[in-house]
Design goal:
By secondary structure, this protein is of the alpha+beta class. Helix content is 37%, strand content 19%.
Length: 657
C-alpha cells in the first residue's frame, strides 16, 4: 500500500474510532490500539508533508503557541437569551407566544454552562471557530477548538457553507481530575467547570488546551447554504447525522409539558456529563421564529429558565485540617450527609481561619451549605438560632497535624503554614509538582507510582528520584521491568531540563514558570543564583520584594542546599539551556586562588558563570585565566610556570565592567 492510501485509511479509521468514543460513548478499540494508529499516522505525515491535511486527527494535539487572538466579526450574530426565574414568568412568556402566533410546538433543552462559540465549515472542512464575545465580535480560537476530540474536522456530504453554534464545556469528571491534581500541586482550584473551560479555551498554547480535554455540544444552525429545514428539531437531527455531538431535546406542546420537562431536567442535572445552569424553551418551527424576530439583545422566540441556587442546612460534626504542598493548613467541614445538585455532600470548604472567625463557625453548629454552580461545596454561614449551648470558638492548631512542627501565619496574607519543609504531608504534593509538565516533566511518574515509591521508603525527597535503580522500581506493585526501564530513562532524560525547569520544579514560593524563566535568563547558573542578594533578585523582571525574600530564605535553608548538592551530584543540569545574556567569557575556564576583598569565592564564581565562563578547582593547560588574590599559593606558581594569563582582583573587576 502506498503512503497516500495508508494515510487515508488510517485517518478514516481514527475518525471513526474517535466518533465512537467521544460522541457515542461506545468505543470499539482500546486506547492502546488508538494511540498506536495515531503514532503511525504522525510518522507517515512527517515523512510525507505534502500529504498533510487540516482535518487529520493528528491536528488535534495542538500546534505552536499563539501570540494573541485576532478578532472575528460574526457573520450571523450570536444572540443572548431572556432569562426567566419562576414558573409564573415562564407561563407569561409562553402565553405571550401563544397569543401572538397560537404556538403549540416547543423544544426544551438543558442549558450547558460553558462558553458559546461559532464554528464555520467550508465544503465540509472546519476552517474557523470563534468565541461569542459581545455577540457581534468574538475571538479566533480555531486552533484551540481543533483539539476537541468530539468536534468533527471534516463532514461527509456537507453543504458548501455551514455555520453552527455550540457550547464548549469541561466535563465534570475531567474538572474533578484537574482540580484534584491542582490541589496536590498547591495551585488555586478552579471554582467550577465553566471557569475552567473559559480559562482553557483562551490559552495561547493549544497543547495546554488539548491536555485539558474540553468538549462541545451543538445547539443551533446559524447558516447553511443550499439546504432548508422546517424546524429546529429537524436541524438538530441533521447535525447529529453529521456526527456532531448535539444537545438533547424534547418536543412539547403546552406550558405544562414545558414546565414538567424543565423540572425533570433539574432533577436529573447531576446525570449530565456537563454542568447546566438552566433549561431553554424555544419555538420549534423556524417560520414561527422568523415571524417573532428578535429584540436588540435576544430572540423573542426563546427563554432560559434559571434554576434557583441550591442551599441546605446540615450539622457541622467536625473540622479536619489538610496540609497542602506549600504547607498551608486548610480547614474542611465534616457535615451530616445532604443531597445538593444531585450528589451527596459530606464535607465543605471553610477557606481559612479568618473566614471561620468572621462567620463564628463552631463544631456543633447548624450550617448553610451551597453548591449552586460550584462543584466544590462551601459553608456559607451558621444558623445562629440552632446553636447548642456548649460550643466553643474554633482555632486552627498551633502545630502541624501531620508532622508536629510549629505553624506560622504569613505576614502578607491569611494563610497559616507548617514550618517544616520536610513535612510528610507535603512530600507527595512536592513530588507531583517537581515531576509535572511545568517542572522537570518526568513521564511515567503519576500519583500512584509516586505513592508507591514513598510508601516503599525509596523516595523521601526529589533528589532520591535520580538515585533509583531499575531493579528496585520493577519490584513495585503494577510496575514490571519494561515500565521500570521506561521510567528510569524518563528520569535520566529530565536531567537535561535546565535551570529554568529546575527552578520551577523546586516549589519555591511565588517562583512559577514566568519567574523561573526570568531568573534563569538573568543568572544563568544555580551557583550564580545562590550567590545573589535580595536586591539583585528584585532587579529581575517578574520578581518582587516578597518573592526575593522567599528565594533568599529558601537558599538559606540547609535542607535545600543538601537537596541541590544531591541533584548536582546526580548529574542534573544546573545551568540555563539558553544562551546567557552576556557570554563574554564563553569557552573560557577560570581558576580562583588566594583571598579576594570584594568577592566571596561563590560570588566570583557566579559572576564568571553568568557571563558564560566555567570555574575549575585546579590549574592545567586548559585553564584560560587565573584570578589571584592575596596570599595566592601553589596555584599561582603553577600558572606562572605554564605561562597562563593572570589577573588581579582589580583587573578582574575591569574585565567585568
Amino acid at each position: 500500500m502506498d503512503a497516500a492510501s495508508e494515510i487515508k485509511k488510517l485517518r478514516e479509521e481514527l475518525i471513526k474510532y474517535g466518533y465512537e468514543y467521544y460522541v457515542l460513548d461506545q468505543p470499539t478499540v482500546s486506547d492502546f490500539e488508538y494511540d498506536a494508529k495515531l503514532r503511525q499516522l504522525e510518522k507517515l505525515e512527517e515523512a510525507h508533508p505534502e500529504l498533510s491535511s487540516p482535518d487529520s486527527p493528528t491536528k488535534r494535539v495542538g500546534g505552536a503557541p499563539l501570540a494573541s487572538f485576532r478578532q472575528v466579526i460574526h457573520e450571523v450574530p450570536l444572540e443572548s437569551l431572556t432569562d426567566v426565574f419562576s414558573q409564573e414568568e415562564l407561563k407569561t412568556f409562553i402565553d405571550k407566544l401563544e397569543s401572538a402566533l397560537q404556538l403549540k410546538r416547543y423544544t426544551v433543552e438543558p442549558k450547558v454552562d460553558g462558553l458559546s462559540v461559532s464554528l464555520t465549515y467550508e465544503n465540509g472542512i472546519f476552517t474557523k471557530g470563534a468565541t461569542r464575545g459581545n455577540g457581534a465580535v468574538g475571538e479566533d480560537v480555531t486552533e484551540n477548538l481543533r483539539t476537541i476530540r468530539s468536534l468533527p474536522l471534516s463532514l461527509k456530504d456537507a453543504p458548501e457553507r455551514l455555520i453552527v453554534r455550540g457550547e464548549v464545556y469541561m466535563p465534570k469528571a475531567i474538572f474533578e481530575e484537574i482540580n484534584a491534581l491542582r490541589e496536590l500541586n498547591g495551585e488555586k482550584l478552579f471554582a467550577n467547570p465553566r471557569n475552567a473551560a473559559a480559562g482553557t479555551l483562551r490559552q495561547l498554547d493549544p497543547k495546554v488546551v488539548s491536555a485539558r480535554k474540553l468538549d462541545i455540544c451543538l445547539f443551533n444552525i446559524q447558516l447553511v447554504a443550499g439546504k432548508q429545514f422546517a424546524s429546529h428539531s429537524e436541524s438538530l437531527d441533521w447535525l447529529r447525522s453529521k456526527h456532531f455531538k448535539v444537545i438533547p431535546y424534547v418536543l412539547c406542546s403546552s406550558f405544562k409539558e414545558c414546565a414538567d420537562e424543565i423540572e425533570r431536567i433539574g432533577q436529573q442535572r447531576a446525570e449530565y456529563a456537563f454542568d447546566i445552569d438552566g433549561a431553554v424553551v424555544k419555538a420549534d418551527l423556524l417560520s414561527d421564529r422568523a415571524a417573532l424576530g428578535s429584540t436588540t439583545k435576544a430572540p423573542r422566540w426563546a427563554a432560559a429558565f434559571k434554576y434557583p441556587p441550591e442551599e441546605k442546612e446540615s450539622l457541622l460534626r467536625d473540622i479536619v485540617v489538610q496540609v497542602g504542598r506549600t504547607g498551608v493548613l486548610t480547614p474542611r467541614a465534616i457535615i451530616e450527609p445532604i443531597r445538593l445538585a444531585g450528589t451527596t455532600v459530606t464535607s465543605a470548604t471553610l477557606h481559612n481561619q479568618d473566614f471561620i472567625d468572621e462567620k463564628d463557625i463552631r463544631i456543633g453548629d447548624t450550617v448553610t451549605v451551597r453548591k449552586a454552580g460550584e462543584i466544590i461545596p462551601e459553608v456559607l454561614g451558621i444558623v445562629s438560632e440552632k446553636r447548642p449551648d456548649n460550643t466553643i470558638p474554633y482555632k486552627l492548631p498551633k502545630y502541624c497535624p501531620e508532622c508536629g512542627a510549629p505553624v506560622h501565619r504569613d505576614p502578607d496574607g491569611v494563610a497559616i503554614r507548617c514550618t517544616n519543609s520536610a513535612c510528610p504531608a507535603q512530600l507527595l504534593r512536592n513530588l507531583i509538582h517537581f515531576t509535572s509538565k511545568s517542572g522537570m516533566d518526568i513521564d511515567g511518574l503519576g500519583v500512584s507510582v509516586l505513592e508507591s515509591l514513598i510508601n516503599s521508603g525509596m523516595v523521601s525527597s526529589p533528589a532520591d528520584l535520580y538515585y533509583l535503580d531499575e531493579q528496585s522500581v520493577a519490584a513495585l506493585e503494577r510496575m514490571g521491568k519494561k515500565s521500570a526501564d521506561n521510567l528510569i530513562k524518563s528520569i535520566e532524560n529530565s536531567k537535561k531540563a535546565g535551570l529554568q525547569k529546575l527552578l520551577a520544579a523546586l516549589g519555591i514560593r511565588q517562583v512559577g514558570e514566568a519567574a523561573a524563566k526570568a531568573l534563569a535568563e538573568r543568572f544563568g547558573t544555580m551557583s550564580a543564583l545562590r550567590a545573589a542578594t535580595r536586591e539583585e533578585y528584585t532587579a529581575v523582571y517578574d520578581v518582587g520584594e516578597i518573592t526575593a525574600g522567599f528565594l533568599s530564605d529558601w537558599f538559606e535553608e540547609p535542607r535545600n542546599i543538601t537537596l541541590l548538592e544531591r541533584l548536582e551530584q546526580a548529574g542534573v543540569l544546573m545551568e540555563s539551556t539558553k544562551l546567557t545574556v552576556d557570554s563574554r567569557f564563553s569557552g573560557m575556564t577560570f581558576v580562583l586562588t588566594g583571598s579576594l576583598e570584594r568577592f566571596t569565592r561563590d560570588k566570583a564564581k557566579a559572576e564568571i558563570e553568568v557571563h558564560g565562563g566555567k570555574v575549575a578547582d585546579t590549574v592545567s593547560k586548559k585553564t584560560t585565566v587565573v584570578i589571584a588574590g592575596d596570599n595566592a599559593g601553589s596555584k599561582l606558581d603553577k600558572a606562572l610556570s605554564l605561562g597562563l594569563r593572570i589577573l588581579s582582583e582589580d583587573e578582574f573587576l575591569r574585565l567585568l565592567e
